[in-house]
Specification:
Helix content: 25-40%
Number of strands: 20
Bound molecules: calcium ion
Oligomer: single chain
Largest sheet: 9 strands, mixed
Structural class: alpha/beta
């Protein structure tokens, strides 16, 4: 009864969901970066609640996006790679589909489910999209690493002879021309056009706007690189000798300064190129927000800004994603609900919480099958706590993270009972335990310290229970 009453009386807000690709919270000025300025994202943060402890559920595009859009953890759907969650969820509704089913017009501009970057953006295809999620959808083709300009391949290019290349490679291109040369400029323009069009529609809308920067290649119009040049002035994270000695092999990220053969000059240019891509992204976010203001719908539109996962910029000599350290597993998250007080929330949230939370804020029926939690009360009271810890996975290396206020617990390796003929085998590829209050940069692995064995044991049990809960769901036969 209460639900019916709530639903019929709740405001039908529009939803504008803006998601960046491979954006670490550490690169945003509203999260404390002093070098990279992001005035448009900062403005949105000042109008909403900025979450300082938001975590993705998978530390690369495919599983993270499939999870947040479907409402299930990666290990529930088995969407651990770069696939659509649809075969596993059958006729159950995704996040925008649930809104469509309740009178919303749903639109996608560019990358919301997984798309290969740069390859998929060069070809302009749909990627691992889910057609049932949308009333209309647009792909925004761009030249990526082929954009005319000054390019350099930073990765595995010790003698400087390697040309600019495609694929998932650290390449910087200071590009000729304006914003519209690139995919994200076109994405912003399409979103602006749709917001203009939606002035006239009677239905509320759910619009997903997916930007592909700062995902590699670091390509943007030249002017965005200026604040970061000469690149030699970029400051790299603190390096500690022997930093890898106390972590398991599985804990050393797949991209490092060593295996990418990046010297200090290239590392600094990678940071500058990444920041330029973030500045370019920020400018595109500004265009979309201006268009929302101009459409007259800002006052009844909930705006969300986030990223599918984070990114290392040289911490521990790690680069890129996959890692379960905070720079990679934590995401920027801003939720701006008209009429609610802006603030900063330090309680734990997961990207998985967006689907049930937005459903609740818009008065749509609650679905108990969803694995995320409704965090809408945190938007009224930033001290409110819905979860004590966040859970994230790096399927590529069977890595699992449990993160609470005090600890980051990371475990690698898992064999299921079917493979073992009875009994789980957890953590055979190593464990990391970091004291996040005294060692927030995660330099000292305490997993082998005698004193902390009870903490390790308690987390091992917690993780085992968590995986059982995650796998017990309505998708199972
Ligand atoms: Ca990504």
């Amino acid at each position: 009864m209460l639900q019916a009453f709530y639903s019929s009386n709740a405001k039908k807000y529009n939803v504008l969901f803006i998601i960046s690709d491979d954006l670490t919270y550490t690169a945003l000025s509203c999260y404390g970066n002093k070098v990279c300025q992001t005035p448009n994202i900062d403005k949105l943060a000042s109008e909403g609640v900025r979450f300082t402890q938001a975590y993705c559920q998978g530390t690369y595009c495919g599983p993270s996006r499939a999870s947040l859009m479907s409402g299930y953890y990666p290990h529930a759907t088995g969407a651990l790679g770069y696939k659509s969650p649809r075969p596993k969820i059958g006729n159950r509704s995704t996040w925008p589909q649930h809104f469509r089913n309740h009178g919303y017009h749903a639109a996608r501009v560019s990358k919301i489910y997984h798309m290969g970057v740069p390859g998929g953006i060069e070809s302009g295809g749909d990627g691992a999209d889910d057609p049932l999620s949308w009333d209309e959808k647009y792909n925004c083709k761009g030249p990526e690493w082929l954009a005319p300009g000054d390019g350099e391949t930073l990765q595995k290019n010790p003698d400087g002879k390697r040309p600019v290349v495609g694929g998932n490679t650290f390449v910087v291109v200071e590009a000729d021309g304006d914003d519209l040369v690139h995919s994200d400029g076109k994405t912003a323009a399409k979103a602006v056009e749709l917001l203009g069009k939606y002035k006239e529609i009677k239905k509320p809308f759910w619009m997903g706007v997916g930007f592909v920067r700062p995902h590699v290649p670091f390509v943007a119009p030249r002017k965005f690189f200026e604040p970061f040049k000469p690149y030699s002035k970029m400051v790299l994270p603190k390096k500690l000798p022997g930093n890898w000695d106390d972590i398991p092999q599985a804990g050393i990220n797949y991209c490092t300064s060593v295996n990418m053969e990046m010297d200090i000059r290239k590392q600094k240019k990678a940071v500058g190129g990444y920041y330029a891509s973030v500045a370019y992204l920020d400018a595109q976010v500004g265009k979309v927000m201006n268009a929302l203001e101009n459409s007259g719908k800002r006052d009844n539109t909930i705006v969300i800004f986030t990223s599918d996962h984070g990114f290392h910029l040289g911490e521990h000599d790690f680069w890129a994603k996959v890692s379960l350290r905070d720079e990679s597993a934590k995401v920027p998250l801003i939720i701006s609900v008209p009429g609610k007080k802006p603030g900063v929330c330090d309680s734990f949230v997961e990207l998985l919480d967006l689907y049930p939370t937005l459903s609740s804020l818009c008065g749509l029926p609650k679905q108990d099958r969803l694995q995320g939690k409704d965090i809408s009360q945190m938007l009224d009271d930033t001290n409110y706590e819905v979860r004590k810890e966040a859970f994230s996975v790096a399927p590529m290396r069977t890595g699992f993270l449990l993160r609470n206020k005090k600890w980051a617990f990371i475990q690698y390796g898992e064999k299921l009972p079917a493979q073992l003929k009875g009994g789980f085998e957890h953590g055979r590829n190593g464990i990391e335990l970091f004291d996040m209050e005294n060692d927030p940069q995660q330099f000292i692995n305490l997993a082998d310290t005698l004193k902390f064995q009870p903490v390790v044991a308690s987390f091992r049990k917690k993780l085992k229970d968590k995986l059982i809960t995650v796998r017990k769901n309505d998708l199972q036969d």
